[in-house]
Amino acid sequence: MLRRAGSLVAKVLSKLKEEAKPGVSTGELDSIALDMTRQAGATALFKGFPCPYMDKPFPGAICASVNEELVHGIPSKKRILKDGDILSIDFGIKLNGYCGDSAVTFGIGQIAPDRQKLLDVTQQLLDIAIQQMAPGVKWSVIAGEMEKTAKEAGFSIVKDYVGHGIGTEMHEDPKVPNFVSRDLLRDDIVLKEGIVLAVEPMVNMGKAGVRTLSDGWTVVTKDKKCSAHIEHTIAVVNGGSEVLTARE
Ligand code: MG
Ligand code: MG
After folding, report:
1. Beta-strand runs (E) in the chain
2. Mind giving me the DSSP string for 30-51?
3. Strands 172-176 and 219-221
4. What is the whole-number distance in angstroms between the Cα of residue 231 and the centre of ligand 2?
5. Which of 61, 137, 230, 248 would staple 33 via disulfide (CB 3.0–4.6 Å)?
6. Which residues keep their CB under 5 angstroms from ion ligand 2?
7. Ligand 2 centre from 194 Cα, in Å?
8. Do residues 220 and 69 make contact, with C-beta atoms less than 8 angstroms apart?
9. Tens digits of per-residue pLDDT, 133-167?
10. Where do runs of H (alpha helix) occur along 173-243?
11. Which CATH number covers residue 177?
12. What tens digit of pLDDT does each residue of 190-216 get?
C-alpha cells in the first residue's frame, strides 16, 4: 500500500517537474497536482493542514518554495517562475489509508553554477541515506555523514526541520534529523526490516538560520541565500533500502 501511495506521489512530481518552466505560476502547478490526486482517488495531505501560528490552514496541495524559501511556500497564481530560479516542490498524499511524501528541488531554465552545486550536494545527502539504510544501521551514522558532506561543500544543514516516520499517518515517529544531536545519540534510531521513513535533507547555501514569514507558512533563510530540500519515502526491506517515491 505504501508503494502504491509512493508511486502516485512520484507520478505527480514528475508531471510538475515537466510543467515547471519560466512564465508558469506555482498556482498552476498546484492545480495540476490537485487534479491528478483527485483523479487517482487519493487525498492531498497538505491541503487544510493546520498552521502552528494562526488560524490559517495550508491552502495548497503542494508546497512550492522558490530560491531563499526553504519549505512550506504557498502556491499562488501570482508567483511566476523565472529563468534561473530554483524551485522546491513538496507533495504528500494518502491513498487507501496509506501515505506518500516526497520533495524535489530543481532549476527553472538555466541556473547559476553555485545553485547547481547546492542541488547536487542535497541530492548527494539523500543518496547517502538510500545507500546506507539497512537493518541494524544506526541513523546517527547516516546523519553524521550527511552533515559532514554538506559542511565539506561549504553549505549548512537546516536544524529546525527534520524527516519522520510515515505510514497510515504522514508524520509518525521517529523524528529523522539530517544532523547528529545529543538527543539522537541518546535515543538513536536503529533501523530494522519494515521501517519506513521520509528522509528529507534541507541544505542552505549560506548560514543555517531560517525564519517563518508573516503569512504563517513560508520558511525562508535568514541570510536570503538559496536553500534546497529533497525528500523520499524510503522503506528498509530485503536487507537494504527501497525508495517508494522513486520517479521513472
Ligand atoms: Mg514532504
Ligand atoms: Mg516529509
Report:
1. 43-44, 62-66, 69-71, 86-95, 98-107, 156-157, 163-165, 172-176, 196-199, 202-204, 210-212, 219-221, 227-229, 232-237, 240-243
2. HHHHHHHHHHTT-EESSTTPPP
3. unpaired
4. 7
5. 61
6. 101, 198
7. 18
8. yes
9. 999 999 999 999 999 999 999 999 999 999 999 99
10. 182-186
11. 3.90.230.10
12. 999 999 999 999 999 999 999 999 999
Ligand 2 centre and the CA of 190: distance in Å? 20
Is position 248 within any domain? no
Ligand 2 centre to CA of 200 (Å) is 6
- The amino acid present at 162, given as its one-letter code, is V
Give the number of whichever ligand sits closest to the CA of residue 92: 1
Nearest-angstrom CA–CA distance, 51 and 200: 20
Expressed as residue numbers, the domain containing 199 is: 2-243
Q: How far is the CA of 109 from the centre of ligand 1 (A)?
A: 24
- Ligand with minimal distance to 44 CA: 1
73 assigned to some structural domain = yes
Q: Which ligand is nearest to the CA of 196?
A: 2
Task: Please report whether residue 38 resides in a domain.
Answer: yes
The amino acid sitting at 19 is E
Distance 207 CA to ligand 2 centre (A): 22
Q: What is the distance between the alpha carbons of residues 66 and 86, in angstroms, rounded to a whole number? A: 6
> In this structure, is residue 71 part of a structural domain?
yes
CA 162–ligand 2 middle distance (angstroms): 8
**Distance, CA 27 to ligand 2 centroid (Å)?**
21
Number of domain units in the chain: 1
- Give the per-residue pLDDT at 215: 96
Considering every ligand atom, which ligand is closest to the CA of 91?
1
Q: How confident is the model at residue 248 (pLDDT cuts 50, 70, 90)?
A: confident
Report the separation in Å between the CA atom of 228 and the middle of ligand 1, taken as the mean of its atom positions.
13
